[in-house]
Protein: Glycosyltransferase RgtA/B/C/D-like domain-containing protein
Organism: Hymenobacter ginsengisoli
Amino acid sequence: MPARATSLRLRTGRLWPSVAVAGLLTALCLAMPTRNATGDAWYYAACSRWGQELWQPHHLLYNAIGWGWLRLVGASGPAPAGELALPWLQMLNALAAGASLLALGRLLWRAGAPTAAIPAWLLLVGSCFGMLRFATDNETYNQPLLLALLASLAWARAVYADAGRRRWLVLAGLLAALACLVHQLMVWWWLGLLLGLRPWQGRRAVVDGLCYSLPALLVPLAYALAAPSAGVGAVVRFALHDYLTGGARVELGASSLLFTAISLVRTAVQVHGNMLPLLLRWPLLLGGVALASLGLAVYGGLGGWRVVATRDKSSRRQPARTVRRTHVLIGGLHLVFAVQAAGNAEFMMMLPALAATGLAGGALLAWPPQRVAALGVALLSWNLAFGLVPAHLLDYTGTGPALRARVLGEPGAWFLLREPNVLRNQLHYYTGQPDAAPRIVGLARQDATTFRRWLAARLAAGDVVYTDALGGHWPFDRAQMAQGNLAQRLLSGLAARRLDSVSTFFGPRYLSRLGPAAEAIPAPRSHPMLNASAAVKAGASK
């Protein structure tokens, strides 16, 4: 039996560098939660804070886990304790990210990576932007990744073991099923581990596949219990809700390939339209960091040129090779799924961990650890400078207590917003009412003819209509690439008068009142900056 078939017994002196790397990255994420939480992050936080809509089809257990965590730390329900729900949920994801790195370290060893190289690989994976961005926000990806990595670790133990093999497979299947319940995306990880057992090759492989697959029965059972109505059809409709309603869709074509390439880059390094304004504000500091990062990346990358030619033949041991090939397969399944989802970067965040598992003990075995670490430091410095630190310190959108106060103060007005979900879900978070602002309308994905007809009817009826899409600087992003200038297409030809403004890092954002083209909108008595009212808790500005 190969040495790795025995239980993992790393000496403390060999284990602590991996723990130190995971601890450092976890501490950075804990210290720098984003100030610019996504609309989804606000929604999940609202559900967990108030105990509402806990069972979501696409990520069945995520809100419930958050609710339990908030109850544990005393940050649920009304203010003042409940106002800290979002930071506590961000903290939970940072801890999950750190635990994922520890699990990955054990898995890399099972995949044939040298013990001395594992800390460098953990630094490289943990410094990828795909890992860092979701470890500092309340998004749904770090927790299922942790469960999936633990499932892979148990699966790898089964591959090496003779005695207790099926016990490890049952545990792996259970953890993989739980990962699917936290996010449906992990079904591809579950499927990859099943295929890695090759259940079509003989009786033993069939039994192994059954042992692994049996715990997956928990998934339909959980959906049956969570579905709002009984019956097989109702459960299926609930489980596939996002696909049946258009919340998730298949999008293939040239644009999907372009966005896939961009998202692959962004999974490793932060690349965004806000980088130019950041460089213009701090040219020497950020320019120096960028040059240093590029230099380290070149030094680290050069070490990988001849790794295949110098590969250690011991890395070809069958169990380790099985682990590597299976996780390459899992990575391929996830990548194909991301491509059909228009290159969604969120669906690629697990790729660095899978790539490391597939390559660190195989094709890149001879990559010197110091070179791997250099590339990891390059990614970390770049992603801190252009990603985590600015997102923690700066306000990018201005969506905060001031705008919330205006919406609640004018319940009869319509608000046409570029990013409606952030405001809508902030109101849910602070008031506990899912429909606190039913007249918030997004501009994205609107049919121009239908929308302009609807808007003309609202204005003709004398409704008050505001928008934040006219004027101000909006950094170039994916939405602008995909949809162009929405305001020009949907709001051109209408009269508009700026009423208020809010400050952001990019400059002022304006709130304008719309009217028919021939109508002059009367000027307000005053033009105050938006201020928070007592109706809305101040909290953070985003």
Observations:
- Strands lie at 414-417, 440-442, 465-467, 495-504, 507-515.
- DSSP finds 24 helices and five strands in the chain.
- The longest strand covers residues 495-504.
- Confidence is low (pLDDT under 50) at residues 1-13, 309-316, 519-542.
